[in-house]
Write a structure and sequence with these properties.
Shape: elongated
Structural class: alpha+beta
Radius of gyration: 17 Å
Mean pLDDT: 84
Low-confidence stretches: none
Number of strands: 7
CATH architecture: Roll
Order of helices and strands: EEEEEHEEH
CATH topology: SH3 type barrels
CATH class: Mainly Beta
Number of domains: 1
Oligomer: single chain
Length: 105
């Protein structure tokens, strides 16, 4: 499985950007996003492996980062914290009623 991480652009050069996430820093290819919009320092990109796949707003980058942090926490605790059930700050579709699912559409 491949997971995309939001990463912020530090610097650019033709076809590449130096990006960071926390203390991790790396160079990624920007060929897939540059035809849509030029990559600039400060931009947020969704990075899969070493390719930028999408420009992100700062808000969307924060949402994805928070969601991935929940997944990491669930994996680290095996779905529980000191014996208590893991509690996500949202309801999963499998736990929703038919009416709630319809409202999502």
């Amino acid at each position: 499985m491949c997971i995309g991480w939001p990463m912020q652009v530090l610097a650019t050069r033709s076809g590449f950007a130096t990006v960071c996430r926390g203390t991790e820093q790396r160079e990624v290819r920007t060929a897939l996003v540059e035809p849509v919009r030029a990559v600039q320092p400060g931009d947020w990109l969704l990075v899969f492996l070493d390719d930028a796949r999408e420009h992100l707003s700062p808000e969307r980058a924060g949402e994805i980062t928070a969601t991935l942090a929940l997944v990491q926490a669930a994996l680290a605790t095996g779905g529980s914290d000191a014996g208590a059930p893991f509690s996500a700050p949202f309801e999963l579709p499998s736990a929703m009623s038919a009416e709630q699912l319809q409202a999502l559409r």
